[in-house]
Amino acid sequence: MSGGWIGTILRINLTTGQIAKEPLNMDWAKEFLGGRGLGAKYLYEEMDPTIDPLSPENKMNFVTGPMTGTNASTSSRFTVVTKGALTNAITTSNSGGTWGPELKFAGYDMLILEGRAARPSYIWIYNDEVEIRSAEHLWGKTTWETDDIIREEGGVHDTVVSCIGPAGEKLVRFSAIVNDRHRAAGRSGVGAVMGSKNLKAIAVRGTGAVPVSDPKSFMASMWTMKDKLVEHPVTGEGLAAYGTAVLVNIINESGALPTNNHQMSQLEGADNISGETLADTRLVANKACFSCTIACGRVSELPGEAQDKFLVTTRPHNWKIAVEGPEYENAWAMGADCGIDDLDALIKANALCNELGMDPISFGATLAAAMEMYEKGVLNDDQTGIPFNFGNSDALIAMTEATAYREGFGDELAEGSKRMCDKFERPEFFMGVRGQEFPAYDARAIQGMGLGYATSNRGACHLKSYTVAPEILGIPEKMDPAATEGKAGITKIFQDATSTVDSAGLCIFLTFGVGLEEMQPQLAAVTGINYTVENLLKLGERVWNLERIWNHKAGFSGKDDTLPKRLTEEPISDGPTKGQVNRLSEMLPEYYEARGWTSDGEPSEAKLKSLGLE
Amino acid sequence: MAKSLRIIPEKCTGCMQCELACSWVQTGTFQPSRSLIRVNIFDEQASYAPYTCFQCNEAWCMNACPVNAINIDEDTGAKVVLDQSCVGCGLCTIACPFGTMFYSPDTHKALKCDLCGGDPGCASACPTGAIEYVDSESGDWLGDWAEKVNSKYIDSLDGGGA
Q1: Same domain, A36 and A129
Q2: Do residues A76 and A578 touch, judged by C-beta distance below 8 A?
Q3: Where do the H-state alpha helices sit in A234-284?
Q4: Residue A232 within any structural domain of the chain
Q5: Which residue, A80, A159, A179, B120, could crosslink A99 as a Cys pair with Cβ 3.0–4.6 Å?
Q6: What is the pLDDT of residues A282-291, one digit of tens each?
Q7: Per-residue model confidence as pLDDT tens digits over A296-339
Q8: Are residues A407 and A462 in the same domain?
Q9: Domain residues for A554?
Q10: How many domains does chain A have?
Q11: CA of B29: which chain A residue's CA is closest?
Q12: Cα separation of A463 and A35, whole Å?
């Protein structure tokens, strides 16, 4: 018996209204698994990479993996693959919650969206019943309102909604697609692509099953991995007790927490926004995604006085409710990078980002760039409408709403840091790669992260080669974060292995505790295909190279494998990493060589042929 | 000694591994819609609550059944549906005040938790210990829970509705 994949694709053309079910291309599925890899393969085969991401020609693939919906730990993931509105590069934004598994229970491995609806619409999927419904009454609603209304009017218990908020409708360049109210395919502007298609939501309810090929060995290997995750100090203790924000103090003490738009590498009040402080003062519950044994999700509540302070008049109905977050990246982007150490403001701003459908990383980092321009006299109060000093949490709250609705200076922020800095003729304040803002690790303090950022296919990203694990946390083995030796090799391996995890339908967080060795027997048992660790690593390399050549067809080249001058030329001014810059030029040639690419960063024909990509 | 499932909602993270395990035992696939334990998610209250049959002494399902298709298992003390006797009338699903009697549209038979014959899959699968398999005589956990929730509610009223 085959298992893992359902074997069916749902293809919906929003221009014509045509809904079609087609068999999954199993040759591609075997070579790319699902999720990120399979989504990239379909995009590569079906779409011209040079098109405008906000045009009807852009396609969106919502893709689960063969593991999605099983009881393997962290099997909740699905990936949105499209051309990013923020980056113009291929983007692969993945999300947890229950939406991905629900799509499989409804009978589909992936959903391909094409065209543009003439009017606001949403898609309703209840097993075989698939409809394009009017969303005129939902346009302008928040993600939470949309979730409530669709579930109510659909009348089917346990319906799961994935939708955009006002930010996606307004084509905010870093708007997100939010599912299960607090989970998001967050980065690179996938929400804007959905908004450009006049598509408000995709509601799914499925009552079917995900079969596995070899039940006995699957259950055995599944328990082996779960036991390891429970025993590991990160996946069994740290993330469960403190969430991802357990990293705030660790990274700050390492002198690697970018502060004030990367002008500094430590925040004085970092502990105020740490996972430990959150757990002591505001945490009410841990929340897990579907089938996850880690449960890193935080659920927080603000006390009365903080609720009054951050009362946003437009949404009083949200008072006195528990909200998810903040996570490490959000606490950093809207916190440290903006010089803010007010935990309550971060809880509020994070909830607003979920509610309005916006990526808190790019939003926070863009606000940080605007704050630097304000402090350096490029922007004034007349333009910003509110003092943009670093540390001003009132500006953060006000701008979170203004950006999502593109009001006032929010309209500038909504374009993302690169476009905003270019407009005000200060491109040097943009902190990112390929148009996407950096996440929460200073590449001057952690050399490998600089190489990972510079070569990341979807623009600056921490999730594609998390060398923080060896360089700071010592997982699986400690590497010196200040050294460049060995970073090219480890970055390549991490990028390839991560591509495999993302394609399987699993969460990258499990790699703190286990590796491909633990995943391989589960993947083999689920699919009935004799994957080995070696060919899974090669599968990841195939995905990485495919994304790379897609990007090059879209107009990128090795010249885009760069970092802002601040990271390569301005040494860190203080703290334990004082004096350091990122030495990308030492690592990049070695990386190209390890990848089998030319010295210009072009994948060689021999390499592509060896991966079956010629 | 009869045993039953005790739920500790505060420990639940909403991961639904119990639903997956329950469907696995029944169908050999992962199909939460077939699970006899259900996790209710109340996001705004940060409350995640699995619930299933706790093998109550009153056993309304058993009393309502017109053909004696629900019996007490001698080994586990669980109330179990005898497929060969069940005529699929559905009376038990109406009688059960907890909503933990189910009906299969495929087989037209009643379905309920049978404690997996003494090794409940949901309790084994729960990663946080929110589902325990305990002596059913060890105390009125449902009553204790209700009292706790109730006092919290009353406290909040005393606190001026905060």
Answers
A1: yes
A2: no
A3: 239-242, 247-253, 275-281
A4: no
A5: A179
A6: 999 999 999 9
A7: 999 998 887 777 777 665 666 666 678 898 999 999 999 999 99
A8: no
A9: 447-610
A10: 3
A11: A211
A12: 15
Quick check: is A122 in a domain?
yes
Mean local confidence (pLDDT), A181-185: 96
Report the C-alpha gap between A302 and A328 in whole angstroms: 18
> The domain spanning residue A199 has which CATH number?
3.60.9.10
Q: What is the β-pairing status of strands B131-135 and B3-7?
A: antiparallel
Whether A476 and A545 map to the same domain: the answer is: yes
Statement to judge: residues A113 and A180 lie in one domain:
yes
Q: Is the peptide bond before A326 cis (omega within 30 degrees of 0)?
A: yes
A468 and A414 share one domain: no
Asked whether the beta carbons of residue B16 and residue A290 sit closer than 8 angstroms, the reply is yes
**Same domain flag for A424 and A461:** no
Quick: pLDDT tens for A203-214: 999 999 999 999
Contacts by A147-151, CB closer than 8 A, 24 or more apart: A147/A181, A150/A122, A150/A124, A150/A201, A150/A203, A151/A203
Task: Tally C-beta pairs within 8 A across A and B.
Answer: 83
Query: pTM for the complete prediction?
Result: 0.96
d(CA A324, CA A347): 8
Cα B33 from Cα B96, distance rounded (Å)? 20
> Per the CB < 8 Å rule, is B46 touching A292?
no
Let me know if A108 is exposed, middle or buried by CB neighbors in 10 A (0-12, 13-18, 19+): buried
Over the stretch A377-431, which tens digit does the pLDDT of each residue have? Answer: 999 999 999 999 999 999 999 999 999 999 999 999 999 999 999 999 999 999 9
Report the alpha-carbon angle A114-A119-A120, nearest 5.
Answer: 85
Q: Which of A73, A101, A209 sits opposite B27 (nearest CB)?
A: A209
